[in-house]
């Protein structure tokens, strides 16, 4: 059946995220099909153009708007339709209207803002979120600027060429280090410059939508003895954690050294092992195993579990991003099994995420006979 092109466009115009009524799997599957539709409809040159010119130009403009505080001040001023002159007045630094109109033109063409008349603009839900510090979306953009670009772009292809196209496994030798001006790794740069730690932490907070430990505390508040939840990280990251201290103990810890919290019921690592090679991950896991009580303690790992085929773009992009940032990787179930058994663990269950973002791997010490010892 041939659907008239105009009807198809009308149909697409009416679709919205609300149509899915919280069914995230179907919403994401629909996005995937919509992207495939665009790929089919685009001419080859249009696709290359979008990839090589539009995406970077848009990111540069969004970063400029964030730097100038335009989204933030637009939201503070009520978020109504604004003239070019008004937007110039909102900027933290003087900006030539002839420049701003050119930037707005592309933002409107890419639906970041709406052009309601000549030199009259309306924010969209996304540009308002970029102006809302609480939504942390601007932190995400800032993190792309401060960090992800060094693990990507031309540094990435240059790094792969310079390392003879070997799978990167040395966290001391990364595309990020090659690209960043200080020739430092990600964590060292964050430790030296508070702003760089802040944008990284805001991106993480945005992604994990509030720290897991705070969500756990909120859900089980009455049952949790004070101080029995321990949050460990680098001191610079902990300083920004902003957790309630009534039940949660903050403990700076280098997880490449022995684990001091012993015999806990659960040791949870979220988005940690994807930052590390197998060699370093084994060090972390063995320190954790040494602190655990056989048959009682559980290991919980929230990370990507790559499907053997058909990985989502999120999972595949996360894998390549970890390659660029840290010479690290995401893992398939088989890779997880090998890694964990190498450190003396046995996987009990993998809690899969139907959205195909991250899963939770539940494991325990295998014990001397290699079997499970659940209580
Ligand atoms: C991708 S982030 C995940 C943060 C947090 N688990 C979450 O889910 O929001 C990785 C974390 O590992 C921390 N990290 C890096 N090296 C570390 C080390 N040697 N010891 C402890 N934490 C470290 C970083 O500070 C960062 O917060």
From TrEMBL:
PROSITE patterns: SAM_OMT_II (PS51683)
O-methyltransferase C-terminal domain segment(s): 247-346
Any single Pfam family the record assigns to this protein: Methyltransf_2
UniProt keywords, alphabetically: Methyltransferase, S-adenosyl-L-methionine, Transferase
InterPro entries on file: COMT-like, COMT_C, SAM-dependent_MTases_sf, WH-like_DNA-bd_sf, WH_DNA-bd_sf
Protein name per UniProt: O-methyltransferase C-terminal domain-containing protein
Native source species: Apiospora aurea
Keyword S-adenosyl-L-methionine: yes
SUPFAM superfamilies for the chain: S-adenosyl-L-methionine-dependent methyltransferases, Winged helix' DNA-binding domain
UniProt entry tagged with the keyword S-adenosyl-L-methionine: yes
